[in-house]
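Example 9 (inverse folding). The structure is encoded as follows.
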């Protein structure tokens, strides 16, 4: 057998595993923080028409200018700020890492945090430093400040709310981090629609702050659209690394149309928030389950024998996320995305049955 790939490919890539997405065919899918609701039929019909008329033999608008204008208006992005679009916010994380990956440069995050920060840092040749959160998943500010002092990170990514814990970090603590770091801080607001707080106003205050958003959790995961919001002086640099035509024509057209009905997405987000409260309350009544607070569209909980429970749920056709063994703070933790009322009821009923069943 040839070991040519191993001799040619960078060792840190050889050591990585490809991002694994578990099969979910026919299952109740509560593992990936998707919005469980479809768009209303009338809007889907309009989308079909857009697709029919789209000139897909041509490349899309490389600047996506009309889409950016609508996004700025709809999301109340300050006029002074620029927007860069990505094929999901994952691509934006990659662009930021590529742009800052000087030899030995550090990308800092928190642990447990969003896995892609570490993975992308690694394949872009950066050193990833994950600063442990406190046991209640709050920011350990002293540890963060000490790590900043020691590692002088080029970039710090903070998800607000955090994935997989679901909580919002303390605003004051984040501000202290922005003030203390020599590089940039990217506040990743992927779950913004389900929280009542944002750093968008702070963009004016801090020249080293950038903000990331995505439409994936709001009901448009299949279209892949993420965005970076910040000062032009940063975005003109990052734009150099954005591949031409990274946002397809159908994504541009459909998002433009759906944003004209943004209230529909917001209503769906409001239903998800209401269902989140019901789901948390139900989980809390299951004796041995510890439920963590959530400002996102998912709920983290801890229970005995989490891995066995996860497998049992899977056997019953329900897919959630097993986090047991991924980090010491996540021992026996599972994460469930808020689904439709029916899906949540199915999940709770099945979980209750599994917990009542003796080994
Ligand atoms: N940031 C966070 C915190 C996330 O949890 C996710 C998705 N799991 C993303 C970014 C990536 O989202 P997108 O679909 O826009 O690539």
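The amino acid assigned to each position is listed next.
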């Amino acid at each position: 057998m040839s070991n040519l790939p191993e001799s040619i490919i960078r060792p840190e890539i050889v050591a990585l595993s490809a991002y694994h997405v578990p099969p979910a065919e026919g299952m109740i899918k509560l593992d990936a923080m998707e919005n469980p609701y479809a768009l209303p039929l009338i809007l889907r019909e309009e989308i079909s028409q857009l697709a029919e008329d789209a000139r897909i033999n041509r490349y899309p608008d490389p600047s996506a200018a009309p889409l950016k204008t609508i996004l700025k208006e709809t999301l109340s992005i300050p006029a002074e700020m620029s927007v860069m679009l990505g094929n999901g916010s994952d691509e934006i994380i990659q662009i930021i890492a590529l742009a800052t990956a000087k030899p030995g440069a550090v990308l800092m995050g928190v642990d447990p945090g969003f896995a892609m920060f570490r993975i992308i840092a690694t394949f872009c040749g950066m050193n990833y430093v994950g600063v442990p959160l406190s046991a209640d998943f709050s920011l350990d500010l002293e540890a963060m400040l000490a790590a900043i002092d020691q590692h002088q990170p080029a970039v710090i990514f903070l998800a607000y709310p955090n994935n997989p814990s679901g909580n919002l970090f303390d605003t004051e603590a984040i501000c202290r981090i922005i003030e203390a770091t020599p590089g940039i801080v990217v506040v990743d607001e992927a779950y913004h629609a389900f929280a009542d707080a944002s750093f968008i106003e702070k963009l004016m205050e801090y020249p080293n702050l950038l903000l990331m958003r995505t439409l994936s959790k709001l009901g448009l995961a299949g279209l892949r659209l993420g965005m970076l919001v910040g000062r032009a002086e940063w975005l003109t640099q990052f734009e150099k690394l954005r591949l031409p035509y990274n946002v397809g024509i159908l994504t541009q057209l459909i998002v433009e149309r759906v944003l004209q009905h943004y209230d529909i997405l917001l209503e769906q987000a409001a239903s998800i928030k209401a269902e989140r409260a019901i789901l948390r309350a139900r989980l809390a009544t299951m004796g041995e389950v510890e439920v963590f607070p959530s400002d996102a569209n998912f709920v983290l909980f801890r229970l005995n024998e989490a891995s066995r429970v996860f497998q049992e749920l899977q056997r019953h056709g329900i897919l959630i996320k097993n986090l047991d063994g991924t980090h010491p703070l996540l021992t026996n933790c599972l994460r469930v995305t808020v689904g439709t009322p029916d899906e949540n009821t199915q999940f709770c009923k099945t979980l209750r049955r599994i917990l009542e069943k003796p080994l």
